[in-house]
Amino acid sequence: MLSEDLQVSEDISKEIVQVLCTGESNKLLEKTLDKQEKMLDLLLETEATASHIIQDFLAVEKSVAEKLIGVEAKKQSGLSKLHEIERELKEVSAENTNLEAELKFLMKELEELREMEDEMERMQKEVDEDTTTTIPSAVYLAQLYHKVTRIQWDYDCDPTLIRGIHYNGDLAQPIEMDSKQHSGSSVCDYLWSLVSTEW
Fold it and tell me: What digits encode the pLDDT tens for the residues 67-92?
């Protein structure tokens, strides 16, 4: 458009030169000068409009570039958050798998305990129903053992020692054995040898 305006201006200039050379009237010259002046005004107006359009375009371009930079920054931030969420999701998923396995194990243990409890209740009912079975008390058993063995034990001695007094008629015989030096069977044999077989 600018080159066309320049071409028109050049044509007008040629016409002016031609009019001057041919000696035509002043009217034609004024008309031509008016035409040239209008064309120059139009050219200046077009140039100003183009300048405004370019400025507006540059402002829009700057605004779009700034928005694009902002969108890119948000995109990067969003991607970073997404990667963090994916990492946390993997950790939670692994922990969830472990918890599920542990829960299954605990449920199995609980089921076994319930079965054991049921079995114990069943056995307790059997014992309660069997009135012919009598369970002697600990005191009764201790008295019975004392009557049979005639041994009075020293419970205050060192746990590795077997100490007491065996009463055989009028004779009292002290017992003292180190359980570390004697086997369980030899201790048992010795103690049974003290028990009288005469009833």
Answer: 989 888 888 888 899 999 999 999 88
For 109-159, how does the pLDDT look when each residue is reduced to its tens digit (9 = 90+)?
888 888 888 888 887 777 666 555 555 677 777 777 777 778 888 888 888
Place of tokens 């049979």: 148
Q: Which of 27, 28, 30 shows the shortest CA–CA distance to 38?
A: 30
Task: Give DSSP secondary structure letters for the chain.
Answer: -HHHHHHHHHHHHHHHHHHHHHT--HHHHHHHHHHHHHHHHHHHHHHHHHHHHHHHHHHHHHHHHHHHHHHHHHHHHHHHHHHHHHHHHHHHHHHHHHHHHHHHHHHHHHHHHHHHHHHHHHHHHHHHH-TT-----HHHHHHHHHHHH-EEE-TTS-TTEEEEEEEETTEEEEEEEETTTS-HHHHHHHHHHHS----
Where are the chain's structural domains? 2-74, 138-194
Residues 92/96/102/103 CA torsion (nearest 10 deg)? 140
CA distance 159 to 117: 35
What is the model's pTM? 0.32
Phi, psi dihedral angles at 174 (to 5 degrees): -70, 145
